[in-house]
TrEMBL record:
The keyword Coiled coil applies. GO terms for cellular component: axon; centrosome; ciliary basal body. This is Sjogren syndrome nuclear autoantigen 1. Keywords: Coiled coil. The lineage of its organism: Eukaryota, Metazoa, Chordata, Craniata, Vertebrata. GO terms for biological process: axon extension. Residues 12-60 form a coiled coil.
Length: 116
C-alpha cells in the first residue's frame, strides 16, 4: 500500500503543480486583459476628443467656405460693375472728343471767299 500511497502522493503533487501553473497563467492573462482594457479606455477617450475636435474643425471650415464664396461673389460683382464703368468712361470720352472737335470747328474763324 505504501507504493500506492507514494504514487497517489506523486499524482497529488503533480496535480497541485499543474493547478498552480494554470493559476499563474491565468493571473498573467488577467494582467494582460487589464492592460488592454486600459489601452481600450485610453483609445476611446482619444477618439471622443478627436471626434469633438473634428466636429469643431468641420464647423469652422464650413463657415470659412461660406465666407470665401461671399468674397468670390462680391469680387465678381465688383469687377463686372467696374468693367461697366470703364466702358461708360470710354464711351463718354469718345463722345466728349467728338463734341470738342465739333465745337472747335464751329469756333474757327472762317476764311473769306476771295474771288478775283
Amino acid at each position: 500500500m505504501t507504493q500506492q500511497g507514494a504514487a497517489l502522493q506523486t499524482y497529488n503533487n503533480e496535480l497541485v503543480k499543474c493547478i498552480e501553473e494554470l493559476c499563474s497563467k491565468r493571473e498573467e492573462l488577467n494582467r494582460q486583459i487589464q492592460q488592454e482594457e486600459q489601452e481600450k479606455a485610453r483609445l476611446q477617450h482619444d477618439i471622443a476628443v478627436l471626434t469633438e475636435k473634428l466636429s469643431r474643425v468641420n464647423e469652422s471650415l464650413a463657415q470659412r467656405l461660406t465666407a470665401r464664396d461671399t468674397f468670390d461673389r462680391t469680387i465678381a460683382e465688383t469687377e463686372a460693375a467696374y468693367m461697366k464703368i470703364l466702358e461708360s468712361s470710354q464711351t463718354l470720352l469718345s463722345v466728349l472728343k467728338k463734341e470738342a472737335g465739333n465745337l472747335s470747328k464751329a469756333t474757327e474763324p472762317r476764311a473769306k471767299d476771295h474771288r478775283p
